[in-house]
Specification:
Distance between the termini: 81 Å
Strand order of the largest sheet: 4-3-5
Strand content: 5-15%
Structural class: alpha+beta
Helix content: 25-40%
Number of helices: 21
């Protein structure tokens, strides 16, 4: 008999199996002789050849009360082309008890029995394995379901009672009762008496399934596949139903204990009947290779996509008990962990709402593509767990914006300086470089000076994709060449319009007209997407002089549509969005006049989303269903600023709420915030204002924004002198400062609450402000005026110099000109005048860049920041 872990070859295709039952010709390597000719004998078994290995002993008599009535010969059935012999004489065999602590090595998962009719549970029985002389197990065509045979052979009035098991329960190897081996080819058995343990099914009449249905079910039997999680199952050695919880509330004593698994790695499955057999076999083998094991049938709720950017809203996170700082978002848990044997190692906890940014770390290539696959292949989570413990201590990548050396980030570079100036931060090195065979080409870089700003080059999208693609083909030189070319391209101007001359610009072949990508954004957004054929180089822009364009990736709505297309790998989303966008009014920073507007169902005041952002942001993100056309008509001649426009002062607050609505498909937070803050002016901070609404006290004024955000629910709110009061005098908000908020909280928590200390500190703070901030503003204003004057003088000087050079080339000169303080030797008056303006510009610049003025501004600012 086979031992745990021994090889079990899969079933051959159905059309290649021998139609004979076990023990007949076609399986001569089993060591059993062929049956005698003629009808099957009526005795329990024929006597085997004495020269062959001994056969298992006969099954002991069945205890009284377990007899099954033998049907007459006229009722004999034929299933799958096999003749079903009548029940052997003598008492029926007994059910062999199995020690759950030491399961027999020949136990295996059974296939699911077909449905027994509406309102009844599915039946599940066990199948015994067959042993050959060479030590390997060969699985022939499965015999008729013994339990079904028992049903077919019972009188119509017989009631069969089975213990019910919740549908979410997976059956492991210890849940299966093997049939006792006998010398006969098949022995009919029935489950233990469950009348006491399953009273809910007592007296239930079982409808016998048809022979054709059983045949179809056994033809679709798939070996090396995962148990279906949507079918209820029956335990044959426990009368007490068990179920695995979706996410246990309390972790087990050893969190590394895996879910129940098969010792030999085989799982049987009854797939859907309408699924092709070849596709089922391939999918089953793939799932087994990936280590998928039974998991709860009920899939937990999850966000719409991986949270790979830091968020602060409240949502469900999954954590390992031994690595609680390594967070896994619900999307990654459901997609990558829930259906594997490691599903019960993680515990769900709702985190957020406290302002702490959180990000999912599971979607990084090293964790998802390397460590997870190794864990599924080896059945051990230890390597992944060691990484999960160490990764949270590494600072996350800051992207192309860069980071100062005082942050203390470790850097890596290519060996032998293959890519001059290339730098990779430690986070990208651990997350991405080590997931690729090219990691041997990297080495630690020199420490970063504290005053310098370095950016991670692997965070450039094209470089990261190229590193992954070239690593699969072991083409290091190709990666070096492409990375050098990409890093030499001028950065995108984003929201600024730039001159087109001398640069490559890409436009879509099929429109829409006006959409342009710079060469850098083309590399980052188009290459490696199979969309290269949809774009072409626009030579007219490259050769145009004085023409300015804005890159499409500098438009927020187009950026969002492209990001969504990358996320789902469906670029029709992008093309639909940009074609619709070309028919809408552009979302201008100055606002839109006579536009199309959408809003939340509650229609908050002063809140609106323009038609361009609706078709290019809301529709691609699948949140357009939460928006409705705005009811209020836009007055003629009045411009409204879209709430998703980056120039909107509330945009930094609206966009995180948009991300939350996209991930959760819940508009509660967005609606609650917009209903209050959309009609409130943004906090002016240290800017003084007149004729505004204020809360608080005369000595400590609080703007409406900070009042609703922080102070409205505090005990001190009842003692305020000002409650949405208009002050004609100049005032500034005192409560935007973290220091002032801490002091306000301290006074609120006092018993009784008293604002005296807060007001005293506020008076001192405002006195320092009057001594520092106005002088700083005055000096900055003078500097700004001087810089504008210098710019004008430089332009004038350049104009006269060009005129003078043209005159000298055309007519020449017989005399030279000069002036005191400027010099002599100028060919004409125009060159002399240009020199005079240039000298004036230099003098103005020297007055602005004055060391004493810069030092004074620094000192005053330091005094203000000390009390701010």
């Amino acid at each position: 008999m086979s031992t745990p872990g021994s090889y079990r070859p899969p079933l051959p295709p159905w059309n290649q199996r021998n139609p004979q039952p076990p023990g007949c010709l076609g399986y001569t390597d089993w060591g059993y002789p062929p049956p005698p000719p003629g009808l099957p004998p009526q005795n329990p078994a024929y006597v085997p050849d004495s020269r062959l290995p001994p056969v298992p002993p006969p099954i002991p008599p069945r205890p009284p009360g377990y007899e099954i009535a033998t049907p007459s010969s006229s009722n004999e059935q034929s299933c799958f082309g096999h003749s079903v012999p009548p029940t052997p004489p003598g008492p029926p065999p007994r059910i062999v008890s199995v020690d759950s602590a030491n399961p027999p090595p020949y136990s295996c998962h059974p296939p699911d029995a077909p449905s027994l009719g509406k309102g009844h549970d599915y039946l599940r029985t066990s199948c015994s394995t067959l042993h050959c002389q060479n030590g390997f197990t060969s699985i022939p065509r499965p015999p008729p379901n013994p339990l079904s045979q028992a049903i077919l052979q019972q009188p119509a009035s017989t009631n069969l009672m089975l213990p019910a098991r919740p549908s979410s329960t997976a059956i492991g190897i210890n849940d299966i009762q093997p049939l006792a081996n006998s010398s006969s080819s098949s022995t009919t058995s029935r489950p233990p008496n469950t009348e006491a343990s399953s009273p809910s099914l007592a007296g239930a009449s079982i409808t016998s399934p048809s022979i054709e249905h059983l045949d179809a079910q056994f033809q679709s039997l798939s070996v090396e596949s995962r148990l279906p999680t949507n079918l209820p199952s029956v335990s044959h050695n426990n009368s007490t139903p068990e179920s695995y919880p979706n996410v246990p509330e309390t972790p087990p004593s050893d969190p590394r204990v895996l879910a129940p698994s098969l010792s030999d790695g085989h799982i049987y499955e009854l797939p859907a009947e309408n699924e092709p057999k070849g596709k089922r076999a391939a999918a089953a083998a793939t799932r087994l290779a990936e280590g998928l094991l039974p998991a709860p049938a009920l899939e937990p709720s999850a966000v719409t996509s991986c949270i790979d950017d830091a968020v602060t809203f409240a949502t469900d996170w999954y954590r390992h008990a031994d690595a609680p700082e390594f967070l896994v978002c619900s999307r990654c848990y459901v997609d990558h962990i829930h259906k594997t044997r490691f599903w019960n190692l993680f515990r769900k906890k709702r985190l957020g709402g406290d302002g702490e940014p959180r990000v999912c770390r599971f979607s990084k290539p090293r964790m998802r593509d390397r460590l997870l696959r190794d864990a599924l292949a080896t059945g051990s989570w230890e390597s992944a767990l060691a990484w999960m413990r160490s990764r949270p201590r590494i600072p996350d990548c800051r992207g192309v914006d860069g980071v100062r050396g005082e942050e203390g980030i470790a850097w890596y570079r290519p060996r032998l300086n293959d890519i001059p100036g290339f730098g990779c931060c430690q986070a990208c090195y651990e997350d991405r470089v080590l997931a690729n065979p090219f990691f041997v080409n990297f080495e630690p870089a020199q420490p970063q000076p504290a005053e310098e700003i370095w950016s991670c080059d692997l965070a450039v999208p094209f470089v990261g994709k190229e590193y992954e693609a070239r690593g699969k083909t072991n083409d290091w030189s190709g990666f070096v060449s492409e990375a050098k070319a990409r890093l030499s391209i001028r950065p995108c101007g984003r929201r600024n319009e730039e001159l087109t001359y001398g640069r490559k610009w890409f436009v879509p072949k099929r429109g829409p007209e006006g959409l342009v990508l710079c060469s850098g954004c083309y590399c980052d957004q188009v290459i490696h997407t199979s969309e290269e054929g949809q774009w072409q180089v626009e030579e007219k822009l490259t050769n145009a002089i004085g023409t300015r364009v804005r890159c499409g990736m500098g438009i927020f709505s187009i950026t969002m549509a492209m990001a969504r297309a990358h996320e789902v790998n469906d670029f029709q989303i992008f093309w639909r969005a940009v074609h619709k966008l070309s028919k809408e009014k552009f979302c201008d920073d100055d606002g839109i006049e006579d536009g199309t507007w959408y809003t939340l169902p509650s229609d908050p005041p002063n809140f609106g989303i323009c038609g361009a952002c609706y078709v290019a942001i809301a529709e691609p993100l699948d949140v357009s269903r939460f928006l409705v056309p705005k009811r209020d008509a836009q007055p003629a001649g009045v411009k409204w600023l879209c709430c998703f426009n980056l120039s909107n002062h509330r945009a930094p607050q609206y966009l995180p709420l948009l991300v939350e609505m996209y991930h959760t498909h819940d508009t509660t937070s967005f609606d609650r915030f917009a209903s209050v803050y959309s009609s409130l002016p943004v906090c002016p901070r240290e800017e003084d204002a007149q004729g505004k609404h204020w809360y608080g006290w005369i000595d400590c004024t609080i703007c409406p924004d900070c009042y609703h955000d922080f102070a409205a629910l505090s005990p001190l709110a009842a003692k305020m002198e000002l409650k949405n009061t208009v002050l004609e005098s100049s005032a500034m908000c005192e409560m935007y400062s973290r220091r002032m908020r801490d002091l306000y909280t301290k006074c609120s928590e006092a018993s009784p609450c008293d604002p005296t200390e807060l007001l005293g500190y506020s008076v001192q703070r405002r006195l320092v402000w009057s001594q520092t901030v106005p002088p700083i503003r005055a000096m900055l204003l003078r500097a700004k005026i001087a810089l504008d004057q210098q710019k004008m003088l430089n332009i004038t000087s350049s104009h006269y110099n060009q005129m003078g050079m043209l005159e000298d080339v055309t007519y020449g000169h017989a005399y030279t000109y000069g002036a005191p303080g400027v010099g002599y030797g100028y060919a004409n008056q125009n060159l002399l005048q240009g020199a005079i303006y240039g000298q004036q510009a230099a003098q103005v610049g020297a007055s602005v860049v004055n060391g004493s003025a810069t030092l004074l501004v620094g000192q005053l600012e330091q005094q203000w920041r000390a009390v701010e």
